[in-house]
Amino acid sequence: MTPLLLAAVLSGIVVDVTGAAVAGALVTAAEQRTTRTNDQGEFRFEDLPAGTYRLEIRMQGFFLERLPEVTLAAADDAR
Fold this sequence. Notes:
Oligomer: single chain
Distance between the termini: 29 Å
Helix content: under 10%
Number of helices: 0
Number of strands: 9
């Protein structure tokens, strides 16, 4: 029997208005989990329970960015 995949993955890339990657930005998912973007502006949350998440992105010198809610089902890999 194969185990069920219950966790989801949410990833993305943070860029500025010119399209340049923003390294070191703090990304928060649902006020629970945080990570920082890498040198290419990429972030990734793994092992998220299925549910609805609101993302916030913070970086010194930039406005706070709040993204629309993202709904994840079990085993989703959303970008």
